[in-house]
Amino acid sequence: MKENSSVSAISPSNIAIVKYWGKHGNQLPNNPSISFTLSRCRTETHVAFQGNSTGNLSVRFLFEGKESPKFQEKIENYLAANRQYFGFLRGLDLIIESGNSFPHSSGIASSAASMSALVLCLLQIEKIVAHDDTPLDMRKASFLSRLASGSAARSVYPVMALWGKTPSIADSSDDYAVPLADMVHPVFKTYHDSILIVSNKEKSVSSRVGHSLMNGHPLAEKRYATARHNTERLLKVLKSGDVQEFIDIAETEALQLHEMMATSTPPFRLMEPNTLNIIEKVMELRHETNIPACFTLDAGPNVHLLYPDAFDIQTKQFIKDNLLQYCHENQYIDDVVQNNVK
Questions:
Q1: Is the pLDDT of residue 232 over 60?
Q2: Angle in degrees, 0-180, between the axes of helices 138-148 and 69-81, rounded to the nearest 10
Q3: What's 42's DSSP letter?
Q4: Is 205 helix (H, G, I), strand (E, B) or coil?
Q5: Pick from 30, 63, 311, 342: CA 20 to 30 A from residue 75's CA?
Q6: What span, in angstroms and rounded, lies between the C-alpha atoms of 270 and 210?
């Protein structure tokens, strides 16, 4: 291939309700997880490619117009480690340009969005090289995204996704995620995720290190059993539309995730005082009103406030009146489930 060609893809971030924490083998989860797919926190990636005379693959990476050696190395390592799936890239020069719709320093984990967007571009290149005009295989996209970043496996599907083998979903697998949109009650398809930015600092302990600390953790097996049980519970809740049980699962899972961190060896803490202040205010909101808002957390201090669209106006007002004071520079991001863009 001598001529210049290009492809583009957009992929969103996601927020897990049942948490994935602990892995084995080549990016395989120790328990299943279920996530909402977001709309507005997303990565857009553009890949220009052309043939070269060396027969080798070369990569140049730009993030929001600037060289990013650290992330370029991550991509090169990923492609080298998984070269058996990317033979079609041999003899190509790639220029990868990527950017996020959300501030890079906002504390939102971007690996799920960025790596799944990259994989979607690479699979388009495979189609072009093979002169294949069939649709992309999204299961393959999920599989390859998992190898880059575990949670990226879930970002290729809208609404909600399950990653990890679980009894009630026949085609579920540790190797790839499966879509759940067809079985989700309409109320959950209206959900908002208002992301309250407690801190924009880089985490003191990376997710990679955090996952590794689950090896030999005294509470690990109990945690994995709880996550498996909560996965089956949540699948039933998603069908029934039971918002109250959804709240119980989401908040219990979030707090257990951070309990695992606090009881690791060595222990570490990613929540900050204002994380706890927000959690307390959200619980007060539910106690004092009929607003079924709940919190979840990722592996960091920021709080994801989840609520149905029917309570959008009241919840936004509550955020402004009660929660922004605990946010870094009064910053929050209003996102929605992917099929609920307004």
A1: yes
A2: 120
A3: E
A4: coil
A5: 30
A6: 11
